[in-house]
Amino acid sequence: MKFESSYLQRVYDGLESRNAEQKEFLQAVAEVLESLEPVVAANPELERWGIIERIVEPERIIQFRVSWVDDNGKVQVNRGYRVQFNSAIGPYKGGLRLHPSVNLSVIKFLGFEQIFKNSLTTLPIGGGKGGSDFDPKGKSDMEIMRFCQAFMTELEKHIGADTDVPAGDIGVGGREIGFMYGQYKRLRNEFTGVLTGKGLTYGGSLARTEATGYGLCYYTQEALKSLRNTDFNGKTVAVSGAGNVAIYAIQKAYQLGGKPVTCSDSTGWIYDPEGIDVDLLKEVKEVKRARLTEYAAARPSAEYHEKKNGEHGVWSVKCDIALPCATQNELDENDAKMLIDNGVLAVCEGANMPSTPAAIEALKKAGVLFGPAKAANAGGVATSALEMSQNSERLHWTFEEVDEKLQHIMTGIVHNSLDAAAKYGLDGDLVAGANIAGFEKVADAMIAQGVAY
Ligand SMILES: NC(=O)C1=CN([C@@H]2O[C@H](COP(=O)(O)OP(=O)(O)OC[C@H]3O[C@@H](n4cnc5c(N)ncnc54)[C@H](OP(=O)(O)O)[C@@H]3O)[C@@H](O)[C@H]2O)C=CC1
Ligand SMILES: O=C(O)CCC(=O)C(=O)O
């Protein structure tokens, strides 16, 4: 990776030599540092205060053994992580991922992204992320509960409502948050807002379940209006994923006048020219935790395709708006070219880092509106911060109140990103704008607090 600034080059080279095997982490750092070239050139005090070398190094990494007993009485061992990346603007905040692909590189990339995303929300939350290589697929409710209790038995020592507030991510939804919350309470004898995404009967916020997907569409709508003078109305939408983010992005895309025609899971994908049936999708994925073959079996208009390596999957479908909502690096340069050839107008990221660097470059070069994850999917964590506010004041807000605040935050992110980009002569660049706007607030807070970490 080549930088114009010798300061950025020195920091990146050092980071690369210390973390050579952490590909996802280095990818996320490279993208942010590239955007910061003009900021570093204009602000020599960043080097004086060592801001770049400090911001790429987590304040704390906790790695631990998670031992639990399966339904056959056999002891299983997994690896747990919590990366507390940056607390300059608030308590560490970010989700927990349960997936066999989880390793330190994945958790560090997610935690690093979370710093800037959380800053963009304008709310007082620092960056963190955690998880485990535990695979929830095929496990019974009791196995999930025993794993979550074992995981929280260690995590509890490191978190707190004013210290670090985890939430959900891939493989962690309401069921897992409930089990973890119960264990935290048992160990600490304390009813407090230490996790978000809680159930509505014990401190959860209305609209948190919907927030990431809804927020993604609010962001996309505002970016389309501001940069292309258009909106969702009458547009065909391709969505990947079939989990929390994808489901509520599909629901909101309909409400805004779009027609979502695809979704996918880890084994296959659906093309439904009549439009995805959201209620059926929820039933199959949220309630039954089944495969998308069940969706296709119940829906005559739907085509089911097995996932095949090297094929474009949902990105082969002609669409106006593409919303990747599954996982990192799921949209590569070839997929981007396919979308461009099919006339795509906008790609906005619901998942974290779903597009490869080459895909982003191709899309931007072709003039496609590109909304980066840390801005476009910030609605989830923003609403988590609203849940923290409600927990602190021991009150509940209505769905409409939370949704209105979410809309305000997402439209604000578009404009703050555009303003930050324009300040450095990068008009219309939502990637650079998000990185710069997110960074400037955190850097300012780090300088104000001295060399504290
Ligand atoms: N939940 C939230 O509030 C937020 C989530 N995100 C990001 O959004 C993305 C999706 O998260 P979320 O919807 O919560 O997670 P879920 O676990 O609810 O859903 C994930 C979906 O993606 C699919 N998927 C996961 N891994 C792969 C893979 N390697 N290949 C293909 N498909 C895969 C899953 O398939 P299957 O059903 O087969 O498991 C599932 O359909 C992640 O990148 C997450 O970090 C970002 C901001 C907030
Ligand atoms: O709601 C949260 O705290 C975390 C959401 C999250 O993990 C993310 O934004 O990627």
UniProtKB/TrEMBL annotation:
TM helices/strands, residue ranges: none
Gene Ontology molecular function: glutamate dehydrogenase (NADP+) activity
Coiled coil feature spans: none
Residues covered by the Glutamate/phenylalanine/leucine/valine/L-tryptophan dehydrogenase C-terminal domain: 205-450
SMART domains xref list: ELFV_dehydrog
Record-linked InterPro entries: Aminoacid_DH-like_N_sf (IPR046346), Glu/Leu/Phe/Val/Trp_DH (IPR006095), Glu/Leu/Phe/Val/Trp_DH_C (IPR006096), Glu/Leu/Phe/Val/Trp_DH_dimer (IPR006097), Glu/Leu/Phe/Val_DH_AS (IPR033524), Glu_DH (IPR014362), Glu_Leu_Phe_Val_DH (IPR050724), NAD(P)-bd_dom_sf (IPR036291)
Highest taxon of source: Bacteria
Keywords assigned by UniProt, alphabetized: Oxidoreductase
Subunit note: Homohexamer.
NCBIfam families per UniProt: PRK09414.1
Assigned protein family: Belongs to the Glu/Leu/Phe/Val dehydrogenases family.
UniProt-recorded name of the protein: Glutamate dehydrogenase
Gene source species: Roseburia lenta
